[in-house]
Specification:
This protein is of the alpha/beta class. It contains ten helices and eight strands. It has an eight-stranded mixed sheet with strand order 1-2-3-4-5-6-7-8. Helix 4 packs parallel to helix 5 and helix 9 runs parallel beside helix 10.
């Protein structure tokens, strides 16, 4: 990609909240030995969300079996799933007084069902401990495994999320071990398995995509019944990862957000700091 940019524009500079306000969330996570994608993926909203007692729990260990070119999550030899993790997450939800909990994971292509059983255990454990909580999950594509998708859908999460991440043309560069059509099919399968589940996806901008390609991706998501979409700015998390090709102006994010609403998404978040679980 040519003409890579390095200097952050003014709209990508934000004040950090008081560390004291985020202290409780950090302490709860540390005491219960829980990981969050907020920390592992170097999310720019970490301080803000922790201060609001919000976190996206990361299950199935610290190591991802894939090597996406945009992601800061650790790659390596995966460990066995922690069978006590669902119970500890439920404890954290209760202590933090969460009304909406988000569960995501590293990709586990080494497991027969990609860790789908663990997602189900977390959903059940959280609901048993805090029955009124709304449960949102953000999953991998499970390698297209229908049984894994059906298993989790049967557990009835309120929101089933899977991120498309980027436009079709850039998939081989950004997500070399994933597949654009497979991601769309996962969202379609969730709807077929359980029409009552709200489906959600997200895309990153600033990787070199064209406006027409973004519109195509949004149309593709609506074509499989996706209900919610998030649109945010890609930021290079660490050395060796894809550089930013462009910083998208907030006005352009507004334009894409308005387009998404016209296409029929029931909820849209579009802005430079938006992430798939930001202020859900």
């Amino acid at each position: 990609m040519a003409n890579m940019v390095k200097v952050l524009p003014k709209w990508l500079k934000k004040e950090l909240p008081s560390a004291e306000r985020a202290k409780l969330t950090k302490e709860v996570l540390q005491n219960l030995n829980l990981k969050t994608v907020c920390q592992d993926a170097q999310c720019p909203n970490l301080g803000e969300c922790f201060a609001r007692k919000r976190a996206t729990f990361l299950i199935l260990g610290p190591h991802c079996t894939r090597n996406c070119a945009f992601c800061a999550v650790t790659k390596g030899i995966p460990v066995l799933p922690d069978l006590d993790e669902p119970k500890r997450i439920a404890q954290a939800v209760k202590v933090l007084g969460l009304k909406h909990v988000i569960i995501t994971s590293v990709t586990r292509d080494d497991l027969p069902l990609g860790g789908a059983e663990v997602f189900v255990s977390v959903i059940n454990s959280v609901r048993k401990t805090v029955p009124e909580v709304q449960v949102e999950i953000l999953t991998s594509d499970f390698g297209g495994n229908q049984a894994a998708i059906t298993l989790i859908s049967a557990a009835g999460p309120d929101i089933f999320g899977h991120n498309l991440e980027t436009v079709r043309r850039l998939y081989s560069k950004v997500r070399p071990e994933a597949n654009y059509n497979r991601s769309l099919e996962l969202l379609a399968r969730v709807k077929r398995s359980n029409p009552n589940i709200i489906t959600k996806s997200g895309v990153m901008l600033g990787l070199g995509e064209k406006e027409a390609e973004i519109k195509e991706a949004l149309n593709d998501l609506r074509s499989v019944g996706c209900d919610i979409v998030t649109i945010g700015q890609y930021l290079q998390p660490a050395g060796g990862k894809l550089p930013v090709a462009e910083y998208i102006h907030p006005k352009q994010f507004e334009k894409y957000g308005e387009l998404a609403l016209r296409l029929g998404f029931i909820k849209v978040r579009s802005g430079p700091f938006v992430r798939s679980s930001y202020l859900s």
